[in-house]
Amino acid sequence: MSFAPLQIDPAVLAEGVNLMWVLVVTFLIFFMHAGFAMLEAGQVRSKNVANQLTKNLLTWSVGVVMFFLIGSGISSLVGGSGFASAALVGSSGDWVGWLFGAVFAMTAATIVSGAVAGRAKLRAYVTYTILLAAVIYPVVTGLTWGGGFIASLGYQDFAGGMIVHGMGGIAGLTAAWVLGPRIGRYNKDGSVNVIPGHSLTFAVLGTLILAFGWYGFNVGTAATVFAVEDGALTLGAFSYVGRVAMTTTIAMACGAIGASAVSLIKTGKVDTLYVANGLLAGLVGITAIPDTTTWWGAFVVGGIAGAQLPIVFGFVEKRLKIDDVCAVFPVHGSAGVIGTLLFPFVATSSALEGTTMVGAFIDQVVFVVIVAGWTIAATALVFGVLKAIGQARVTPEHERDGLDISEHGVDTYPEFGVDDGVATDGGSIVRTDGSVAGSEVTDNE
Amino acid sequence: MSFAPLQIDPAVLAEGVNLMWVLVVTFLIFFMHAGFAMLEAGQVRSKNVANQLTKNLLTWSVGVVMFFLIGSGISSLVGGSGFASAALVGSSGDWVGWLFGAVFAMTAATIVSGAVAGRAKLRAYVTYTILLAAVIYPVVTGLTWGGGFIASLGYQDFAGGMIVHGMGGIAGLTAAWVLGPRIGRYNKDGSVNVIPGHSLTFAVLGTLILAFGWYGFNVGTAATVFAVEDGALTLGAFSYVGRVAMTTTIAMACGAIGASAVSLIKTGKVDTLYVANGLLAGLVGITAIPDTTTWWGAFVVGGIAGAQLPIVFGFVEKRLKIDDVCAVFPVHGSAGVIGTLLFPFVATSSALEGTTMVGAFIDQVVFVVIVAGWTIAATALVFGVLKAIGQARVTPEHERDGLDISEHGVDTYPEFGVDDGVATDGGSIVRTDGSVAGSEVTDNE
Amino acid sequence: MSFAPLQIDPAVLAEGVNLMWVLVVTFLIFFMHAGFAMLEAGQVRSKNVANQLTKNLLTWSVGVVMFFLIGSGISSLVGGSGFASAALVGSSGDWVGWLFGAVFAMTAATIVSGAVAGRAKLRAYVTYTILLAAVIYPVVTGLTWGGGFIASLGYQDFAGGMIVHGMGGIAGLTAAWVLGPRIGRYNKDGSVNVIPGHSLTFAVLGTLILAFGWYGFNVGTAATVFAVEDGALTLGAFSYVGRVAMTTTIAMACGAIGASAVSLIKTGKVDTLYVANGLLAGLVGITAIPDTTTWWGAFVVGGIAGAQLPIVFGFVEKRLKIDDVCAVFPVHGSAGVIGTLLFPFVATSSALEGTTMVGAFIDQVVFVVIVAGWTIAATALVFGVLKAIGQARVTPEHERDGLDISEHGVDTYPEFGVDDGVATDGGSIVRTDGSVAGSEVTDNE
């Protein structure tokens, strides 16, 4: 009875446990789509809610198919491993890895929908999503996580602070800039009107769902519970997973506190949406560096990421005059860039071993510039072409009536009277031929 | 120091890790109740929301108790292992297994509530739920997963595409048929009125919660991370878990795309509810076969399951004239049957080893016919008896005023004026004795 | 090739797997904040929703930072291990443990916000949260789980039925008592007015999110999947994890059933909010004892915890005349105390080994009295001081207009007309300088 060496192969043990962990966190990251859907739905007018919800559903559905067939192959191609589409070369283990990559990709994609809310045509948005999932995002991951050009220079982005969130936020800003603002957002004299979203409750629900999923996003990127070294089982990324969990938590908290403080200073009140978006900005800020940041660094990064939110939002709104409806640039774009660039200044000493603070900073700047440049160029090109052929925006009439009716033929809240001048049918019963049921119905509802 | 053989028993290792996995996915599947509650609440009128929510809460509460005391025993009895109620013969490990089974059982149960919304009496619904959890569903699992008659013939249903979803969807259709449509749903000339739900936002939130939980449902059914073979640790179901995750993802996406395409072709617009329900139909379609389907098969199954949704919904509504409020038959019933029957045509070659395509198809047909027949008969009997004794439906007055008031004494949204002719109290303050506070309150709210 | 003894160290294996489990359940418990936010938001007036949401966001954000810097150190100090703040002495593994503790701490903190809704100043609430996270709660855990005085006497509280929920519920009741009721809650003749919450849908959504997270809370407290005994891997707490999962499930179900039954007896109808809160009370009731209760004991504890809810709520409302807005005392306070005290009467025989039923009961009484006494004293002191300096409540004008406007400057639902006499801006477009855009906007929304 001494067949012990054959009983448990450390590689099998590590594979099973690591697969389980990656699957669980992948599910959590997928659930962020519910978060984005609610966060964005809450921040748009009630006449555009169904449009926002549909865009979120189709981002995932269309995007994940494109990433399966093409994007995964483009990423490996740019990374130098040839066109290895998950559809053609996947096996059971590969498919888990593909899905883990896919939920990150779809996070980048879905960020854009919040910026272009209220006026982008559904088919314009879906066209962009197809290209983002098939090419634009895979080029970024190929250059970085996939081992391509940026990886050869050196950079730090643990879970996608720049690759996913920075990229998505910058893409959103670019798209909103090309599209132009919603009707009524700016006056002829250049002054700005606030168009408040229809439900803060849904927005905060979305925020908390996102924070929940983000633990999967950041902590889950510590993807190897176990590794095998010299034939022996060791903790893989789990040797530092506690730091990732701690810095993610502290940065999230300090993001909310930082945004609250700036809101209080600016207006004397604590704007709920700033608190929620500040919490998210804190999460974005730490996402590039949760594994390498000191505990006090998490306070710094989170606090700055949160505090910059109201300021950058005001700058985009009032100076750039870009109508970024759901504040995706201050939440994902600038917070992602800031966190990525702060890396050398808040890093643990071991994280900077073999380099200098200046050297690491230059690496990060080059990384950010390349990713931002590619994202801006590609996004401006796609929406520019769509705009040139008149396919980017809905008509002014449709925009005024709301995209729910013109693009989807639905009323999100048919029973609740809405005071913005858009007639609703008052929840009356509509026949499938379109006419409205009236007195001839004996037992009407 | 060579006591290695005693250090780690592969069986203990497998047990601990497998228990962890099963617990995590069980929690995810449980969370689907939040998804069903939101999906259904969003699809009913505001006057029936609290009723729908209460039914969902009681489905779980009453159902899980019945399944603990009786249903688990009936299932084992029908499966041939004697009446082994979880209450009486359970131990720690058994109870994890029981709970894993219970969350599947309660999924089947809760589907029905969406079909009978807006007119079924609470006590009729609860009575049916008791019988479903104690007998109707356990008979199905006893015959199949429990090793009973259908298992002896041969069939394929990995995670309950037919056993859970097909069964629930068929039960819902049967119940809705026996109950008759809501007042106002059909006109005297046979034409149809649409009664739109009160909130697409809640419906889409429910959809995404369900999709999240579904990863637990399908991927979690690959329940053994590790197995022990010849004394050695091996990957159990985790040797193919990546296929399950991939086909589930692709089918979900293609369900949404398929339903969107049909909606676009039929009406020129993309109906948000069709996209959401199409995504769910794609998930239902793959649920019987995620472990055995090729990657292109997942596209086929998901696409068909999604595309059939608007068509089957129209058929049920206009031809059968059955008022299936939340479209549970096209989402769970027909999609579940279709996925189950498509098995031999999309299966990997190894999945058909030892049989033929025709042989496997006949097995699936027999399986579907038995489960459907039993479900229809049992459900029609229960609701038929309830109807015969006048206990199935609320009175027409109560139905018109809404079940929230008559069955629960509450107003779901007391502050929001509703335009459907039902008077609300305008959120005024009500005394606990029922009178309305007025001028005598000095500092009214 | 016989280096087997070196291949897999059981301690490394246990550490990796246990860390994974603790992280997953920690995420689930964190998600309970979304549950509390929705449950409470649904139970307040629409004019106070943003305030409630902000309080929930800041409870987590401010609380977790305080618990990191100070609370963790106070807990260890009171427990007898010196001031070991997580900020200063944490390592990767310690930080996972800290975060696991933090999500329990923040659960206790967030309960209070539901009791003081609709009239507490934001800064009063945040001040209390800081003190709770830094001192009040850490003293309780130091005395118990941390190995302090109560631990030396003996007590049973597995997952915080008393330490977390009982403490939070009692703190909430105390704070609501010191603050006084909302304007309009009681008439001059002493009679009571019901002020219904604005959305049962959000309340039930919150309930189901909480139940989902509670599986992490209770089952996750069985925190050791594996242990190492005499050099060999064994199941740790997972040897009894099935009992925890089963009793938690049964008690939750029986809580909903118990509250439904009492509601039906009292009013002839099944109040949806009682069902939801009853389900939660059932969960609270079992939280101290899920590992030691028999299966029939789970029925008893859950049923009593649910049934007492409407009764205790009525007592607090009508006799004590304390305005506990979200019923946090009957849900968390009395249910937590009851479950804790029922321990000896429903325990398995092995759980009472070495003691007697009377001895165990006395231990539980002493434990409950000390925790309740400390909580009441500390909470009354903090809110008493705040009240004495006029910082506890908003002005009557602000209370009548709603805290959303006065404290946050926002309107949660700007497009939905609200019938409670509070003027809303009808969703009109507001300039950033505060003026309302009118006719000069050519293309208004």
TrEMBL record, chains A, B, C:
Residues 20-413 form the Ammonium transporter AmtB-like domain. GO terms for molecular function: ammonium channel activity. GO terms for cellular component: membrane. GO terms for biological process: ammonium homeostasis. It is a multi-pass membrane protein. Residues 425-445 are annotated as: Disordered. Gene3D superfamilies: Ammonium transporter AmtB like domains. Its main location: membrane. Belongs to the ammonia transporter channel (TC 1.A.11.2) family. InterPro entries: Ammonium/urea_transptr (IPR029020), Ammonium_transpt_CS (IPR018047), NH4_transpt_AmtB-like_dom (IPR024041). It is found in: Membrane. It holds the Pfam family Ammonium_transp. Keywords: Ammonia transport, Membrane, Transmembrane, Transmembrane helix, Transport. Involved in the uptake of ammonium/ammonia (NH(4)(+)/NH(3)). Transport is electrogenic. The keyword Transport applies. It comes from Halomicrobium zhouii. It comes from the Archaea. PROSITE patterns: AMMONIUM_TRANSP (PS01219). The chain crosses the membrane at residues 20-39, 60-89, 95-118, 125-146, 158-179, 200-217, 237-265, 272-289, 295-316, 325-345, 365-386. The lineage of its organism: Archaea, Methanobacteriati, Methanobacteriota, Stenosarchaea group, Halobacteria. This is Ammonium transporter.
